[in-house]
Amino acid sequence: MSRTRHRRVLETIGFGAVAAALVAAPLVAVGSAAGAAEPGVVLGVDFDDETTGDWTRSGEPVLGYVDAGDGKALEVADRTTDYDGISSPEVAYEAGVAYSFTMRARLPEGTEGTAGIRFVVATDYTWVGSTTISDDAWTTVSGTYTPAEDVTRAVYLGTGDLSGTEAGTPYTYLVDDIEITREGAGSEPEVVLSSDFEAEVAPWVGRGAATVARTTDDAHAGDASMLVSGRTAGWHGAATPIASLFAAGATYDISAWVKLAPGEEATTVKATVAETPEAYTQAAPAVDVTDQEWVELTGTYTRGAAVTGGDLYLEAGGETTIFLVDDVVITGQAVTDDWEPDLEGFVPGGAVDPTSTPVGAARGTGDVAALTFDDGPNGADTTELLDFLAEKDIDATFCVIGSQVTAPGGADVLRRIVSEGHTLCNHSTGWADMAGYTKAQVEADLKANLQIIRDALGDPEAKVPYFRAPNGSWGQTIPVAVALGMQPLAVSNTINDWATQDEAELTANLRTAMQPGRIVLVHDGGGDRAASIAATRTVVTERLADGWTFTLPQGGADGSGSGVELAFDFEDGTLQGWTPRATEDGAATVAVVEGGHDSAQAAQVSDRVHQGQGIQYDVTGLLAAGSTYEFEAWLRFDGTPGDMTLSARTETGGTSTYGNLLAITGVTQEWTRVSGKFSLPAYETAAEVYFETAWDSGNPGNTSTFLVDDIVFRTPPPATIEDITPLKDTVPFPMGVAIDSRETQGDPGTLTQRHFNQISAENHMKPEAWYDAEGGFRIHPEATALMDSAAANDMRVYGHVLVWHSQTPAWFFQDDAGQPLTADAAGQAVLRERLRTHIFDIAGNLADTYGAFGSDTNPLVAWDVVNEVVSDGAENPDGLRRSEWFRILGENFIDLAFQYADEAFNEEYAAPGTDRPVTLFINDYNTEQSGKQDRYFALVERLLARGVPVDGVGHQFHVSLSLPVSALEAAIERFEALDVVQAVTELDVATGLPVTEAKLIDQGYFYRDAFDIFRSHADSLFSVTVWGLNDGRSWVNDNGAPLLFNDDLQAKPAYYGAAGQDLPDRIRTATVFGGQVALDADATSAVEWQQLRLLDIGEAGAFQLRWTADTLTVLADVDGDADALEVQVGDTTSTYARDGSGDVDGVDADRTGGWRAVVHVPLDGATVGSTLSFDLRVVDGDEVTGWATAGATGTLSLVEELSFHEAPQASTAPVVDGELDGVWADAEPVTSAKQVSGTGTAVGEFRTLWADDTLYVLAEVTDPDIDVTGSDPWIQDSVEIYVDAGNYKNGTYRPEDMQIRVSAENVVSFGTGDEAAQQARVRTATSRTDEGYLVELAVDLLDAGGLDTFHGVDYQVNDASAGARLGITNWADPTGAGYQSNARWGVVRLVAAEPAPGPATGVPAKPLLSHDNWDGDGSFTVTSTVWWGQNAHTLTLLENGAPIATQRVVDATPKAQTATFEVTGKANGSYSYEVVATNQHGATTSRALVVRVVAASPGIPVVVHDNWDGNGSYTVSMHMWWGTNADTYRLYENGVLVDTQTLTPNGRNPQHAGTRFTGKAKGTYTYTVELSNAAGTTRSLLSIPVVVWR
C-alpha cells in the first residue's frame, strides 16, 4: 500500500456571521490571477515606499511604517479584533491552480507573549499559513490556496489575541514582504528546488571527503554562493537527496551556475544522479569552467520507476578542484510528501524505541534533573564546562552543531565529550530554521551532521541518540529524527541565555528552570557563554548540596531510564507546578491548604462555578503519546461528592483536543485513593493533564470544592501482550474497535493490531471534529492518525458519523446573524447546502489524501450516515427524535444525508470500476428494546420504500448484564426481513458496580452468548465493533468494566467468552445493604428480614444479611434439625451451633420444620463499595451444604442502607387526573434527596398509596424552570418511577420490572422491556403547580400486590434546562444505574391505613385462638376471639414467629371481637400461630396455637384400565375417591412419564383423570400415577399391568 498524502488547505464552509465587518474599506478589482498558466506574482507589497499599495486598511487599527533591514515594514497598532490589519483587492482565482501566500511577521521587540497570524481568504474564510509570532525574530508565514472552483476573493490578514492577555486587549504587530504567487495550472512545471545560498547551503551537503560551505567571496547573483572544497576524488562534490526532489517517471530541467575558486586550473563540472539501486545517470553534461567567469550548467533528468532513492551531485574533472556553485534551479513536477527514509547502509543514531513526543523528562525520580547543553562544542566555554562536570562526576547531554565540530579545535572537544562519558545529541549542521524544510531536506541535514560527528570521532557507528531542532523550530524534523534512530529532545526549561550573559540573571533563571524530574537547557555555544557556564557551576553546586542528582534525559541509546515517575505531595507549601485550569467562566481558586492525606498539606480547588474548573499540570515532553502510565492520587470533596475525571488537553497543529483519561468514582468527603492506567493521544506542541468533576452535558455540573494530594504518575513495568488467539481469527466477520491515536501506538497499538482488523474513530470523525473554532473545515489530527494507521496496517475504517443531532457546530443551524434558521424554504435551502457541503468536503478530503474510495490506498469502507434519529418514546407519530435537523428539514434530512453520501463516496470520489465501495448505515441505540425497535424498523422500511440508498442498519448494543442476551438476537432477526446488511456498531457490556470477579466472569458468559449469536448470523453482519480497547478507555467504565481487555491490556473473561474459549465457573454474588439487627428476642423475626427475599443455601435453608463497619449481621433460616452454621468471611471461618455455642455471638429460635439464628460476625473497617469473600454453610452431621460452590466462596458487595417506606391502603382509589386529591394526605412523602449527578438540581416529594392490585404514586416536583425541549426523554424535566413487583431484587430486569418515565408534559416512555405491555399497565397525568409540576401515576402490580406485600421501587427526578439535563436526584439508588439493574432500588411495604382511634381505653385483651383443620389437609381457618374487654383496631397473624397477615377490625369495646385468617397450601408439619392485637394504647400477643398438617398432599390415587380384549387400544384411568385434591396428574408407563394433565382442585371431593392409548404393540405395559399439589406428591400404591396380546 502506498504512503499517504496530506493536503494542507481545503475548502471551508463558514457561517458568515462577521462577514460584513471583516473588510471595512471598499475593494477594487485589479485583474485576474488566472490570465496565464505560467507562474507569476499575483499580488505583492513590501511597504518600502511607506504605502500599502493596492491593499487597504481592514478594521480600525492605526497603520504606520518602521525600519526593517534596508527597507520598511508595516506597523499595525491598536489591533483589537482578528481582522484588524490590511486587506487585498478582490482578485480572480482559477479552479485547481495552487497559489502560494507568503509574508514576514513579528511582534515588536519587548512585547511579551505570542500571537497567531494567517492569511484569510474572505467570503469562505479559508485560513492559509497559520503560524505563531513573537518578538524574537521575523517569522515567515506561508501556505497554499487551491480553490475548487473559479472564485473572486479578497484576502486579509487575520490575527489572534496576544497570549496571556484578555480577549480584545490592544497590541501591535509588524508585517513585511507580502506576496501571492501563482504556482502554475494543472501539470505545468514548477520550481522544485531553488538554491541561491544567500542564507544557507541546505539541502546541499558534502559528498565523499568534500565539504560545502556558504561563502561571500564570490557570487553569480546576490551576495553568496556555495564553496565545494576538500575533494580527494573526482566523484567528491556537493549533493542533495532526490527522494523528495524527483517524482518517479517525471522529467526535470536542471540549471546551475558554476565557477572555479581563484587559482584553480581550468577543468569541467557536471551533474550526475547516483541512483539506488546502484546506477549513475547523467543529469547535466560537463561544461568547461575556469576561475574567471560563471558558466551555466544545464541538463535534464528523468527518474525511472524503479529508482528508490539516491543523490543529485555536482563534481569537477580535477580530483582536488575547488569550485563554486550558485543559483541552482530545478523545474518539473512537484513530489508529494511521500517521503521514506533512505536507510540502506545507514547506521541509526542509536535511540531505543524513540517516540514522536520530544522528551522533557529526566531519568529517575525525586530531586533529579538532566543537564543538556546546546550549540557546542565551543572552545574554552565547553572545556571549562567539561572540567566542572568531571569534578562533580556528572554526565550530561551535548547537542552539537556540525559547523562547530568542523571549526578549529571542535573535533578535539567533541572527542573529549565522548571520552568522558557524556551523551551526544544531533543539533543539525548549522543554525538554520528547519521549520520550512521538507522531510528529505531534514534527512539530508541530520545525516550530514551524523557524518561530521562520526568522522570527528573516528567511529562510523558512534551513537548520537538524541535530536533537538535549532531554536525548537521542529517543522517536519520529528518523524525524520525518529526514523533515523534519534529521540527528539524537548526545548524546555531554558534560561534565556541567548538574549543575555548577565551572570546573576542567568543564575536566577537556572534556579527556576531546574525542576525535579525534568531536563534543563543551557547553551555552551553560539557565542560567548561564560556567564552560562558560571551559572551552571553555581546552581548545580547548590543542588548537589541539597541532595540532587543529575542524570540523562529519558530514552537514549540504552533505553534506560525510560520509566517516568512524577510525584507531588505539596509539603513544601507550593503547588509544585500545578496551576488552575480555567473554563469560559474563568479559573477556580487553587491553593495549598492545611490538612493533607496523612500529611500537613494538600492542594485545594475552590470557588468553582463549572465542573471543568480544576487543577492542571503541563506534561509536555514528560509523558509521551501512546505510552502507558500508572496513576494514583488521594482525593476528597469538601462539599457534595460526585464523580471526577482525570482528563487531558493536547495540541497538534494549533488544534486542541480534549479527552478523559480516567473516570474516577467513589470519592467521598474522606480521603479516597484513586488509581488507574492511561495513555495520552498523539500531540506535537502541548499536553496537560487535569482533575475536574464529571462532564455534565455542558451544564455547570458538580461545582463542589475538592482537594488532591500525593499524586503520582509513573511508567509501569512493560506490558506483555499475551500470545493468545487473535479475536479477529475467531469470527467470520470483520472485527472492529473504536479508538483514537492512543491505540495506534505502543502496547495499545500492538494489542489493537493483533485482535482487530477494522477501526472506528470514537470521537474525531463526528461532525464538529471536522471544523476549527472559527468554522473552518479541516481534518482533525486524530482522524488523520487513525486513517494513517489503518492504511499502514491493512485495516479497514468504519466512519462514525456524518450527521448527528449531537456534537454538531451550532452555526450549522444559524443564519448569518447567529439566529436560528427558519423552517421555511429559505432556511431549508441553507441547511441542505450546508449538509451537502459538509459531506462532500469530508469525502473530498479523504479521497485527496488517501486516494479514491475503493482503491488500495483508501481504507475507509463504511459510514454511519445518520445516527440516533429514532425517538426513545412513542410521543411522535413518525417515531423520530425532534432535533434541529428535523425542525428545519423534517424527515427529509435523513433522505438527503444518504443521497449526498452516496453521491460523494460512491460516485464522485469512488475509484473507477468500483461498485458503491462505501457501505452506508443508519445507526441507533436501544434497538434491542421492543418499542424503539418497532419505530426503527418502520423508519427503515419507509426509507427503503422511497428508494433512499440505505445499505445497512447499525445496532449500537450498549448493554449491561441485566439485559437478556436473547434480546440482541431478536433485534438482528427482526431486520433480516429487510433488504439491508446489519452491523453491531458500538458493543459494550457493563457489569454494574462494584466490579467483582464474579461479575467479570458473568460478563464473559454474556460475551460468549452474544458472539455465538453473531456467528450464527454472520451472513447478515457487515462487522462487529466493540466500543473501546480496554476498560479504562470506555465511556461507560463508571458503570462497570465493559470491554474485552483490562487496563493492563490483559484479556478478561470477556475476551475468552467472545473468542469462544473456556470460561471459569460462575461465582455466587449478593448485594448487602447497610444496617444491623440487635441480638434480642425479636432478632429472628425483625422487619429487616421481611424487606428482602432470602437467599437459598441449597436445599438446607436460606439467609439474608446486613452490615456495618465492624459487623456483618447474618440471618440463617435452617430447614430440618441441622447441628450448626459455618460463616466464612475472607479467610476466617466462624461457627454457631443450634445450642448457642460457637465463635460468634448470636440468638436462635425454633420454628416449625427447622430453626432460625441471627449472628454477628466481626468486620474490620468495611465501607460502602467494599467486597467480601463469603460463604454460609449448614452443617448436619457429616453433610455440609453451602451457599457457594464447595471449596469456593461467593462475593458480597457492600452498599448503602436500604431505602424503605410504607404505603398505606387508600380509603378510596385516587383518580389519576393530575389533581391533588384529599386521599393523598394519608401517605407520608419521601424525597429524592440523593444527588446522582449535577449539583443542587430539582427534587421531588413522592407519596405512595395502594388499592387492590394497583400502586399509586404522586410526585410533586419543585422546579421553577420547566424544560421539555431536549431531544431525548431523559434530558427533559421528568420523573422516573421504577417498579419491581414482588421485590425480587435480582439485578437483571425481569419482564415484569418497569422503568416508567413521565415528562412534565405527560409524555410517557419506558426503559428496558416490552413497551406495549408496560403501557397497558400504566395510567398517568400531569399538571403545573406554582412551584413546578405534579405527576400522578397508577401501575398494575400483576397480582403481586395486597396487604403486607413488599415491592422494589425508586423515585427519580430529571432536571433539565435549555435542552440539556442539569442533574438527577433519586430516593434510593445513588449510582444512577437503576435503568440497568434493580439491585439498589428501595422497598415499599403495602400496609393497612391507620385507623381512627376507637373507644378502647387500654391495651387490647389477649385473644384466644382456634382452628378448623380437623382433616389435616393444610387449608384451614385460624380464628381470633376476644369475648369481652378492650378491643384492638389491628390484628396481625404470626406463623412460627413471622407475620403473615394483617387486618383491620372494628373497635367495639367492651363487646366481643372476632376475626378469622384463612391459611392455605401448607405442607405436612406443625405450625405455631399467634395473633398480635394492637390499638392506640399498645399491643397484646395471644398464646400460641399449634396446628398439625398431616394430609396436605393429595389423596392416594387408584389406577384401573379397560383393555379386557387385549387389542392395544385402551384407557388408563385414575380415581382419587376422597382426600386433598391435586392440581397435577402424571402417568408413567414402564417408569417413563407419558402424560401430564392439570387438574382443578375441589376441596376434598373425588378427582378423576384418564389417558387414552391406541395402536400399542404386543407386550406388557405397567402404569403408575402421581398426583401433586403445592404441599407434595403421592403415588398410586399399586402399578397396574396392561397386556396387549393381539
TrEMBL record:
UniProt domain NodB homology: residue ranges: 367-551
Pfam families: CBM9_1, CBM_4_9, Glyco_hydro_10, Polysacc_deac_1
InterPro entries: Carb-bd_dom_fam9 (IPR010502), CenC_carb-bd (IPR003305), Galactose-bd-like_sf (IPR008979), GH (IPR017853), GH10 (IPR044846), GH10_dom (IPR001000), Glyco_hydro/deAcase_b/a-brl (IPR011330), Ig-like_fold (IPR013783)
EC number(s) stated in the UniProt entry for this protein: 3.2.1.8
Key word Repeat present: yes
The GH10 domain, residue ranges: 721-1061
Reactions listed under catalytic activity: Endohydrolysis of (1->4)-beta-D-xylosidic linkages in xylans
Protein name from the UniProt record: Beta-xylanase
Organism for this UniProt entry: Cellulomonas avistercoris
